[in-house]
Amino acid sequence: MSDTSSGESAAETDAPLPDPARDLLSASPATAYFWGRVAGDGDLTEGCVTVRAGDERAADALAAAAGANRREHSVAARESAHDASIVRFEEEYELQVMGAPAERAAAALGLPMDGQPGGYRFGAFADHRGPLVRGLLEACGTVCFRESAGSVGVSFVHDDERLLETVRSLLSDADPAFAADDLAETSSGGYWFGLADEADPAAFAEWVYAGSDRSGLYAESRRRKLRRSVERATGREVGEL
Asked: What is the pLDDT of residues 80-98, one digit of tens each?
């Protein structure tokens, strides 16, 4: 359920970029990661898939997997998913893939097109659940270190309640399984849920980023934040995850 064995490690700067997928709708670690990112922070319109990333490495990985020329770069103002009164200015990379993949993904994966409701059928990626959840985590997830409790917080936030219920199912069906809290509404009008208190954040970090050194399918900033949060909470070395 991961890209590859997590036994080997490489420096982040040495991690390769994935090879272009022969077919974006075939099941592989790269396509699972790609469509996880699209579902979490992307759009489908007729003849066009748009996906966004706030990390240059992730943008490069997405472009490489799609076999596309790289993307537009801008600085975007983003409201906090939990508190609309908080606005952050973040780098944003936007990649567009033109042609048939949009309609095919809407039909095969149940991704919403042109604002229509989505069904989110990710069964084709059952053997690549880790990269799929990694894409979702980096696209619509948050990671924090809770100073007061000395613990790691991992949550998923999105406007689409059905997508988040799908993510909860992916986590419960993972090996190992990860317990999640029920959905709640955010102050900005969306929904969110977090990993339950009994879920092991170190095990989650190991599982969700397993094989990423060798596949190159990750956002460097997000992976580093999760690793360092786990290190602070558990005392384990970052490089062990």
From this structure: 444 444 434 367 899 999 9
